Each structure stands twice: as structure tokens, then as C-alpha cells.
Amino acid sequence: MTLELTNLTKTFDETKAVSGIDLKIDRGQMFGMLGANGAGKTTTFRMIIGLLDPTSGTAEWSGSRIDYSRTHLIGYLPEERGLFPKLTVKEQLIYLMRLNRMKKQDIITEMRKWLERFQVENYENKKVEELSKGNQQKIQFMAAVLHKPELLILDEPFSGLDPVNSDMLKEAVLDLQNEGTTIVFSSHQMRNVEELCDELIILKNGSAVLQGNLSEIKKSYNMKSIKIKAD
Ligand code: ATP
């Protein structure tokens, strides 16, 4: 099982949002995508999950495109968090996970496991709007992973989290990787990538400016840390 992007390109009118990205990410890898605002990270993710059609090139998981029949194979944490504020945590997760073909009882069992892990075990019957931003983010993360996807796409998963919650999420992500999940996440911060990934790509104005093994990149560019700057 491999995630393979081949000459992946997306143009919106005059804007080349993503331009000729080539990538191969093997099963169980944790891959970082770094870039400033507008670099093309979200557009790349939307093409991978089948939400946007590429202008040219392909994005394939295990040899074919992710279309409606395969969406349960992926988990997606969108940058614009989107939960239903009036639903309880339980209702929210049952609604979303049924779309991923999970049985109700399995959803509840998995939900309780994750709520305990995230130290919000009493939150199952709270409405989403009653939760703090950080706790909403944990619920959104659960909605991306509860159905045990093969491929997990996380758009800025650590942004807006305090250090305790951020560490909690990082540990969860590492455990999922150890269980064999392939994970791609975006970030503005090299620190997150250095902590979690062996391989990365750095995007600027839709193109890859650097990609490959983290330690080799750092060696060849003689950097202690890579700074990501907007234009
Ligand atoms: P951020 O960190 O701010 O989310 P990003 O790296 O995810 O940035 P994208 O959201 O992929 O970047 O945007 C890449 C470029 O494509 C930007 O110039 C953006 O304005 C443009 N763009 C994205 N979506 C659309 C759209 N639907 N219509 C027109 N232009 C778009």
C-alpha cells in the first residue's frame, strides 16, 4: 500500500495552487508537508482524498484514486474544523462514523477508548458547542481515526493546541503509525516535523522546494533547523 502522487497539479483560474508534485509514501510512514500560508498543502490534501480533481497528474492510494467507494479507507482532519455544534459528542461521532460503514456499537466502544485516552471521558453527552477549542479538536481528530483508516491525512493537526494537548495528539499519531497507519500531516512548524517524521516535503507557491529524508536534507544544507517563511 503506497500513496503515490505523480506530477500532481491544480490550477484555479490564474493561480497555480499545486505544481507538478511527485511523491511516494510507503505504508506505515509518517510524512511531513511543510509550507507557509498559500503554499498548496490543503489543495494537495483535497486532491489526495478525492475532494478536488487534479488539473493534471494523479494521486493514488494502493494503485487507484480515492473515490466515493473508498473513502472509508482514509481519515481526514480538515484545516477548517467542521463539527455540528448542537450535536453531542456521541451523536456527532455516530453520524460521521456510520458514513464510514462502522456499526453503532463499535463506534461507541472505540469512542469511549479514545475519550479516555484524551482525558475527556465524561464528555460523551456534552454538546460540541460546550467544549473548548482544544477539546473540539480532539473530537475532530477522533472523527478522523475512529474507523481505523489505512491512510490518515491531517491538515495542521497541532495548530491552536496547548503543549499538553499537542503532546497528547503527537503520542496518538505515533501509536497509529506503529500500528501500520500511513500518515501525512501538514504544518507551518519544522519542530513538529522534526519530532515525528523521517521524510518530508517543503512546498512554496505550489512547488516542492525540498523533499526527501530529513537528516539528509539537514546534512546537505548544513542546517540545524529549516525555517519556513512566507514570501
Ligand atoms: P494555508 O496554510 O494558509 O492553509 P495552504 O498551503 O494549505 O495554505 P492552499 O489552501 O492549498 O495553501 O492554497 C494554495 C493557493 O491556491 C493559494 O494561493 C490559494 O489562494 C489558492 N486557492 C486554494 N483554493 C482555491 C479555490 N477554491 N479557488 C481559487 N484559489 C484557491
Shape: globular
Poorly predicted parts: none
Number of DSSP strand runs = 9
End-to-end Cα distance: 36 Å
- The neighbouring-strand order within the major sheet is 5-6-7-3-8-9
Ligand types: adenosine-5'-triphosphate
Question: What pattern of helices and strands is seen along the backbone?
Answer: EEEHEEHHHEHEHEEH
Main beta sheet: 6 strands, mixed
Write down the Rg: 18 Å
Global structural class: alpha/beta
* DSSP helical segment count: 7
- Mean pLDDT across the residues is 91
Helix content: 25-40%
Task: Tell me the strand percentage band.
Answer: 25-35%
Structure overview:
By secondary structure, the chain is α/β, with parallel strands linked by helices. 33% of the residues lie in helices and 26% in strands. It has seven helices and nine strands. Strand 8 (199-204) and strand 9 form a beta hairpin. The radius of gyration is 18 Å and the shape is globular. Bound molecules: adenosine-5'-triphosphate. Adenosine-5'-triphosphate is lined by residues 12, 15, 17, 35, 37-43, 79.
Describe, in short, the structure shown.
This protein has seven helices and nine strands. It is of the alpha/beta class.
Present the secondary structure layout.
Elements: E1 2-12, E2 15-26, E3 30-34, H1 41-48, E4 56-61, E5 74-77, H2 89-99, H3 104-117, H4 133-145, E6 151-154, H5 163-178, E7 182-187, H6 190-196, E8 199-204, E9 207-213, H7 214-220
Parallel strand pairs: 3-7, 3-8, 5-6, 6-7
Antiparallel strand pairs: 1-2, 1-4, 8-9
The structure holds adenosine-5'-triphosphate (ATP).
